[in-house]
Every structure is written in structure tokens, then in C-alpha cells.
Amino acid sequence: MRNLLTQSLKQLGDTSSIIHLQTIHGGCINQAYYVQTEKREYFIKANEKVSPDFFKKEVTGLRILQQSRTVNVPEIFGEFYFEQEQAAMLLMEWIQGDKSEKTEVWLGHQLALLHQTTEKAFGLDEDNYLGSLPQINGWDTNWVSFYRDKRLKVQLELGIQRKRITGQRLKKLEKLMANLSQWLPKNPSPSLIHGDLWSGNWLVGPHGKPYLIDPAVYYAHHEIELAFTELYGGFSERLYQAYQNIQPLPLDYQDRKPLYQLYYLLVHLNLFGEGYGQSVDQILHRYV
Ligand code: ADP
């Protein structure tokens, strides 16, 4: 790892000595490090089991967020893949700071502006990853078919393969997918979303400034992002108020919220196992 790190730093033009290297805990997929050279500080992610495009997709997502000029993301220094070792490495700005009273208001405000970045269709030019699972994109002008085919169906097929979606669960999910247009709006505006916004995927930088990390971006009905933030919690009321001051949520958002949380629960069921099964079944039971 140290050897690959030195090679990466060299490619970035930093040949100064490494003064400090520390493992950072908290992520669920990659190894993470704080590195300080004589020249500067870095946050580094490394992975020895990913496909060569894994960090490329993360960089693309962060760049798309950055180009929207609505939210803050860490500066990307470089991304490298070492063929022989089959290892990937991503080097970016080290973000550190303390929350201020304004931090979450700031985040709510910026998130609303991000969601006001729109496109003509749902999806993205390229596929990416949600955690370590591939997330299929492409474009579709119809939100219902996008959510059904590119989100729920992909997880349904994976769940069948991994034997996590069987029996009644499978039957109900198929029925829900066939009747999706009953609950989802036909033509919402396609909004740019972070795509994986749980409380571990944002950081506080200097002066309480919020930063988004680890995205799974695409253009979607923006309510899906809010629904996911509410699934595992960790975001304060202040954030939602700031969000709604710019982009109010309609009352019937509450009726759709579990349907949007379902995608994330299916992903987690497929990734981490039956611990998520009961929550999936509860949602299926509510609609079918
Ligand atoms: P993973 O891709 O494995 O989920 P994360 O991107 O979530 O990894 O990062 C792992 C840990 O490192 C988290 O605790 C996160 O808070 C922290 N972290 C991520 N990016 C930075 C950064 N640019 N600066 C400082 N800490 C970071």
C-alpha cells in the first residue's frame, strides 16, 4: 500500500516525505487513510478488489456535483489503477472542521439548489455504483418506467440470484412494480441528486461548511433523495426546513416516501442480507 501511495503521490508531483499516515475508520467499502506529506494533507481511499472504473465513477459523480455549483465537494487530486496489483487509489482534499449552528441549514439550502439543477430526462450518460453494487443509468423520459426498470427491477433480479427475494416477497414486489404508476407522479422534473445521501456521506469542513462525498449521482424525482435521508435518520429538522424554504415538499410526499425508500432497502438487502428483509416486507405489505 505504501509503495502504491508513494507512486501515486509522485504522479501528482508530490515527492516530499510522508510525515504521517493514519487509517480512517467509518467507510464500509474501501480502506481509507489520512496522509500528510511535507507538502500537504490528503484523504486517500484504496481498494484491492474493485474493477478499474470504480473510483473513476466516484470522481465523475463528484465532478458532476461540483459543476452544478450548488454543493461543496472535496477537491479531487487524482485517481490511479495499478494493473499488476489490481489496486485502485483515489486521492482528494482532506476535509476537517467543526459543525456550526448554520451547517445543517447550509446543507438543506444547498441540497434544494442541487435539486433545482434539472435535465430533460431521468438517468445519466453512464452507469455508476451505489456502494459496491452497479447502478444502471442511461436515459428515460418517463420516471415511472425509469424507477421500475432501472432501479427496482435490477434489484429484484439480483435478489432472485442471491436468493434474498423469493416466495411472497417476490410476488408482492412484482405486483408493486406492475402498478407503480398508481403511486408515482408521471412527469416530475428530473433533478440532479447525490443519490446516496445518508448521514455518513457528508462532512463538515472549515467554518462549518458542509461537503458531500461518495455520490451515486443521476437525475431523478428529487423526493427519492429526501426519502433516503429519512430512512436511517441523522439529519436535523433544521435541514429539512431550510430545504423546504426553497423547495417545498407536497403533502403526498409522505405517501410516496416508503416506495422510494424501498430501492435503498432492496440494495441493502442484496448487499448485507436478511437484516433488511423485514423493512422491505413492511413496505411491500403497505402497498400490495
Ligand atoms: P467508503 O467509500 O468506504 O464508504 P467513505 O468515503 O465513506 O468510504 O470514507 C470513509 C471515512 O472517511 C468516513 O468516516 C468519512 O467520514 C471519512 N472521509 C471521507 N472523505 C473524507 C475527506 N475528504 N476528508 C476527511 N475525511 C473523509
From TrEMBL:
<dbReference type="Pfam" id="PF03881">
    <property type="entry name" value="Fructosamin_kin"/>
</dbReference>
<keyword id="KW-0808">Transferase</keyword>
<dbReference type="InterPro" id="IPR016477">
    <property type="entry name" value="Fructo-/Ketosamine-3-kinase"/>
</dbReference>
<dbReference type="InterPro" id="IPR011009">
    <property type="entry name" value="Kinase-like_dom_sf"/>
</dbReference>
<dbReference type="GO" id="GO:0016301">
    <property type="term" value="F:kinase activity"/>
</dbReference>
<protein>
    <submittedName>
        <fullName>Fructosamine-3-kinase</fullName>
    </submittedName>
</protein>
<comment type="similarity">
    <text>Belongs to the fructosamine kinase family.</text>
</comment>
<keyword id="KW-0418">Kinase</keyword>
